[in-house]
Amino acid sequence: MAQAKRRRVLLIVLLAVGIPLGVVVLLAVLGGVFVLSGKPQPVTAADRAVVVTIQDLARHMHDFEPVASGETFKKTRYLDGSHQLEYEYKSPREPPLYLRSSLSVEHSANDAVTNYGGMRIGAKVGFALSGKDKITQVDRDDLLRWGDDSHCTLLQSGGKPVGNLFVARKGERVVSVILAGVYFEKPAAFQELMLPILGRALTYNPAR
Fold first, then answer.
1. Global pTM value
2. Range of the domain at 127
3. 155-166 burial, b if ≥16 CB within 10 A, otherwise e?
4. Considering the chain, what percentage of its residues have pLDDT values greater than 70?
5. Of 87, 99, 104, 80, which Cα lies nearest the Cα of 206?
6. CATH number at residue 153
7. Per residue in 68-94, pLDDT tens?
């Protein structure tokens, strides 16, 4: 499930609470201008080090070989100076596996709070609309607590675990990770995956 852009999530929330249509249209236009202001940037080794990649995940799996063609990685710089890294892996072969990991470095901590809240709401709405194979979230903050705000869940389908969702904010940085086709139920294993990457994210400079 792809992360919704922060302005699009905000638009959905505003619609839900009944903001007048004219105001919503204006905000949609402004949000669209903001998103279009994004300029692609070259991805570096430093960028790869601060998001969860399939290579990171493979170290915690048995008999799994990543396929390079399943990866996409985008780095975007926006008009306000914020940056977003978006990594995605879709396994092109069986067994199916999906990973999406992102890091946003916002213009301010207030913007990061808005982005974090939007991700939480966007994930909740997205999973609620996931169709016949409905995905539900079971709170598992015991797996990992990090930063100023964080939320961790075990994703389930038909009552069985199928993945994890982790969203967190520290200062002006917002992290999200979605796993499907593989999941973590033990805090030690999940923290072994996440904590080194989160540590590097705190000192990461996207402008370099």
1. 0.82
2. 40-203
3. bbbeeeebbbbb
4. 81
5. 104
6. 3.40.1000
7. 999 999 999 999 999 999 999 999 887
